[in-house]
Amino acid sequence: MRRSMPAVLLLGILLNACGDAIPGDPSPGVPGVSPSLEGVPLFPADNPWNRRIDAEPVDPASDAIIASIGATTGLHPDFGADYLGGPFGIPYVVVGAGQPAVPVSFDYADESDPGPYPIPPDAPIEGGADADGDRHILVVDRDAGRLYELFDAHRDGAGWRAGSGAIFDLTSNALRPAGWTSADAAGLPILPGLARYDEVAAGEIAHALRFTVRTSRRAYVAPARHWASANTGASLPPMGMRVRLKASFDESGYPPQARVVLTALKRYGMIVADNGSNWFISGAPDARWDDDDLRSLRQVTGNDFEVVRMGTIVTD
Fold first, then answer.
1. pTM of the predicted model as reported, rounded to 2 decimal places
2. What Cα–Cα distance (Å) separates residue 286 from each residue in 23, 31, 91, 253?
């Protein structure tokens, strides 16, 4: 079984106050700015990540599950512009048909998609080249319409070695085989669940977000395909479980970047994708994030969420 807790629990000290406006985009190629996806869609419009769930019923176990995650615990943006001197979050890179593919070996080869993977030599690693955490690498091939993701990636000669890896066809809704991990504990792709600055600057995040919980259940629900826990309590969240911000929550007083995130959490919700700190939501690093603005999200607590009714819960 793959990891039951992530190697990194970012403490993410985001500073004070609230900004008033989303800053404009600088010129392309500015250091610390996440790359454009260049119009490449992250899965079809009817993919679970892209499906609105604001009108779906609440799960009967919602109150108990929210309590197990932390009813009074605040939401925590695990991304921003400045953590220990630089943008933090889960980075990604965009390549084209000319990017050479390199070999990748895996610790969990039986649940990983074999290489080669088109990883640039300078591909950004989550946490940086010397990180000892999850060390994700995410690569979008814009020409092939493929997403390549690695967990615990390290250079290995001309290629890489990693804990696990997955390749996703961005034109398909196909899931990984039942019981398989990916570069994420739940067997899900990571990139479509990240908050990205370009979306927020445009005024809308039109997909669900990825989040973590400290203690998950030995179970998963679609679209997840893998669990990462030995705990069987019915009040614990299974991988793939989806929550949404309650319709009654008033986000109108929040600053601009936070307000876009909160609107997305009402319409699309967020999906349990890994074990980690409770209510940590994921995003891509970008120097243009306003950390003061994002910090306001920490006022939102577990009590403001509800679990969307789950389908079949897989336990074996």
1. 0.90
2. 12, 9, 9, 24
